[in-house]
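User: My collaborator sent over this chain with a note saying "see what the structure looks like." That's all I know about it. Can you take a look?
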Amino acid sequence: MTQFLEHLFGLTGKTALVTGGGVGIGEMITEALAAAGARVLIASRKVEVCEALAARLAGKGLSGTVEAFAGDVGSEAGVKALAAEVSGRTRTLDILVNNAGRTWGTPLGAFPHRAWNDVLSVNLAGTFALTQELLPLLKAAATPADPARVVNLGSVMGTQPISKGAYSYSASKAAVHHVTRILANELAGEHITVNALAPGPFDSRMMAFATRDAEKRARMEKGVPLGRIGRMEDIAAALLFLCGAGGAYTTGAIIPIDGGLHVVCGEGVLGGDD
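Assistant: Without extra context I'll predict from the sequence alone. Here is the result:
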């Protein structure tokens, strides 16, 4: 059984890049990939956060490794610099996880114009542009039997018509879902799969406004059909499916990891009132 599971989900010998890989869901993704045996490159604007995670995971005796460095996908120059750094570290890239994200919450009537460019430049343009820049490395790793993998981070807020005041964030994640399908179609012939995870509420920096307050957390959990917020295992299992041998025939999928929120109608989504 162990050998069978290793075949399906193991990543020994694979090289992965996780943007925004130092905190929240990015941290969960980084640990899952390293635990599965991958060499994981993680980058964010706050390099010290990534370095701290790399040091902590090094002490856990995982079969994979983690390397941290600075990277910013919020501008064209930042994307090109990050791609150059990755190219200097590896000739092939088996897995790209576009996790870096930004949000902005302001009530309707006061939502600023700059919140659109600031959020979409990272969540949407950064995801697309970095994938494009790293195509040579992904193609170099890809084979018909074992495609290279791109995993984008979407959101239940890109699936349901809700905002909680984060209008540009929700719109950006809906666009990420659509771009995922477009790239899946265009890159299938290159033996590159492109999928997305669409998480609901997890313990993360973006959700801290709700998850760190006991009353708000309880209200949010009540609004989730399965009655809780997400755990590391929820993200890890879906990710390893997409990146391992078991996911080699899956592309263009938007996988909801939200406790059933994507099928909730009307009141109750993310705790009810919007």
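A starting point for your reply to your collaborator: Residues 71-258 form a domain with the Rossmann fold fold (CATH 3.40.50.720).
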